[in-house]
Give the backbone structure.
Amino acid sequence: MTLRLIATDLDGTLLTSASEVSVRTRAALDAARARGIHVVPVTARQPIGLRTLASDAGFDGWALCSNGAYATHLVDGRMLFAEELPAETIRTLAEALRASIPGLLFASVREGGETFVAQHGYAEIADLADHKRDPRTMGGVALDHVLAAPSLKLVIRHPELAPTALFDALCALGLTGFEATLSGAPFLEVMAEGVTKATGLARLCEHLEIERRDVIAFGDALNDVEMLRWAGHGVAMAGAADAVQDAADETTASNDEDGVAKVIERVLGVC
């Protein structure tokens, strides 16, 4: 491997439990960038959730948002691609899931992640940390409006049921035409068919003319599995689920123990 690109998840991976970039991690990322290595955040977050930490992490290039559905440049705002979930598919899966589980609430991420369309009642059970948006700014609309347009990511949650229960219920329906995953956030996330962090990363690497064997990827959640398998070297965080660790080539220390930095330092040969 000739390391040319570092792809890293954020929450639970690069960031500490306090959602901060440690001094050691920032130094490791800077050392990589100084050698011309691309450092790319690959996250379920939207650009709004990246801007709050971009300066702390030194992110000044491409980013992959919505679990690989959207690629944007954090400095000049260029969009490389946006893969949206069709409205017809959204309505079909929402109707089927609602028939199985009463009380669900939905939100749609649109327009490059800048627009968040939430159903009435969604903001009341949301926290700032969920979407890096103040729930007071989310408003609330009728469900028909949430489901009426294509979406980079459809968010599904329940006031009482865990996201894993929603994921299992959706899988049990046997529907097709979309990708569903979990990121560790308190909701189920649904993207366009075939869209994962791996597919988004592959498209970005093609644009940058970087081979997958020259990519190292870090992650901790179910939505990172495909990316860890795709990369030339996949690294899971300590404490990640078995499926995540099984997908990786190695497991490093936890996000609170500078796990990402330790691997980068080793690969670069720096202390």
The radius of gyration is 18 Å. The chain has a mean pLDDT of 96. The longest helix spans residues 87-100.
